[in-house]
Amino acid sequence: MSKQSVRDVDVRGKRVLLRVDFNVPLDKLGNVTEDARIRASLPTIHHLLDHGAVVIAVSHLGRPDGKVVERLRMAPVAQRLSMLLGQPVHAVQDIVGAPAQAAAKVLRPGEVLLLENVRFDLREEKNDPDFARELAGLADVYVNDAFGTAHRAHATTVGVAAYLPAYAGLLMERELAMLGQLLERPERPFVVLIGGAKVSDKLKVLENLLDRCDRLLVGGGMANTFLRAQGYELGKSLVEEDRVADAKRILAQSSDKVLLPVDVLVADRVDAGAAAQIVAADAIPPDMLAVDIGPRTVERFRTAIVRAKTLFWNGPMGIFEIAPFASGTRAVAELVGKVRGTTVVGGGDSVAALEQLGYAGKVTHVSTGGGASLEFLEGRVLPGVATLRDRAEG
Ligand code: ADP
Ligand code: MG
After folding, report:
1. Of 55, 265, 286, 369, whose CA is between 20 and 30 Å from 90?
2. For residue range 147-202, what is the model confidence (pLDDT) as tens digits?
3. Residues 126, 133, 198, 236: which is the catalytic one?
């Protein structure tokens, strides 16, 4: 079911409560060190301002757990937003109550207010109805652009929608379209490239995508559990013994679709200075552990990746945080960057790897939702999406 967005509502002269994801990294002094999430919300904010709305933005920042934490105040974020928008952004040190109401009331169309960190109030994460009603009272319309928080049922992601007409922001709309396309009508061949640490984190995603894709390429730590399922010895590698049965089942179900590593980089410890060598996947020495996929595996994956018309990638191919173990992830990122079809990358560490290696600009869509994108691809309906108005099917 597709959702209505800011493009479906006349916001002229209206007060819009805009849930954004401004949960940006800060340094020890509370300065914004990386503003990608703020920039990701700009299209929606510009759209609302250009159409004569008052924007009352609200976000969480860090984990203050319901208390006021000085270094998690929104003021530095308001400053950065103001710089990016090229206009003043009013900031208040309140979320609800008289001062917030007063600050919201004086705004004129085209102006922006940023409320205080919403997780300073315990009632946010409890999805408290009174808190939600108070927040909703600041505005006429609710827009949710915080896809990265849409898997949480909080007051600003779910509760307020009980009191206001609720629409998707442009970022939310794009996330739903890009990820939805993977589940609904992927152009074929559809290739899923999955890695990262553990099978257990991704089992539901694997199962939901397995039937829908044409090829499933498995790398990273999670491949070890699949190699074990084939009866290989893994030495000191990360293996989830309690998931071997799941891996066996997946292999039995679709062995023709699944490609596993045929060689790996092994190291004697997880350290840049470790002794490391490439070995066949069935010849991992007992005192070593697999830390990356090997070059023959990259070649094996290459053919499938470059032919893809749709590709989804989640999870690094190795312990990419350690430079000598990043070659497999880098090689795969380069290949994904060359795909002519639609490429979508999701997952916190996957996106970090893509950015660190300089390939973020080469893919069609980098999802801003780590946990949210995975839950979406598990086939779950995210609570923060369910509350948005449906588009009439026609
Ligand atoms: P994402 O956040 O993109 O969903 P994950 O959190 O599942 O990805 O996995 C990322 C982590 O997996 C990284 O910290 C990386 O070091 C780790 N990892 C990748 N390959 C291995 C491996 N062979 N052994 C142990 N850890 C690995
Ligand atoms: Mg992760």
Report:
1. 369
2. 999 999 999 999 999 999 999 999 999 999 999 999 999 999 999 999 999 898 89
3. 198
- Does the CB atom of residue 369 touch ligand 1 within 6 A? no
For residue 195, the model assigns a pLDDT of 96
CA distance 79 to 71: 15
Asked if residue 336 has its Cβ within 6 Å of ligand 1, the reply is no
CA distance 79 to 61: 15
pLDDT digits (tens, 9 = 90+) for 245-274: 999 999 999 878 999 999 999 999 999 999
pLDDT mean across residues, the chain: 96
Query: Is residue 198 flagged as an active site residue?
Result: yes
> Is 67 annotated in the active site?
no
At residue 272, what is the residue type?
A
Q: Quote the pTM value.
A: 0.93
Pick the ligand that lies closest to the CA of residue 315.
1
Please tell me if the CB atom of residue 348 comes closer than 6 angstroms to any atom of ligand 1: yes
To test the pocket of ligand 1, the residue of 192, 319, 345, 354 to mutate (highest count of ligand atoms within 8 Å of its CB) is 319
Q: How far is the CA of 77 from the centre of ligand 2 (A)?
A: 25
Query: 195 with 223: CB under 8 angstroms?
Result: yes
- Is 371 a residue of the active site? yes
Length of the chain: 394
Only one residue has tokens 């009013």, namely 90
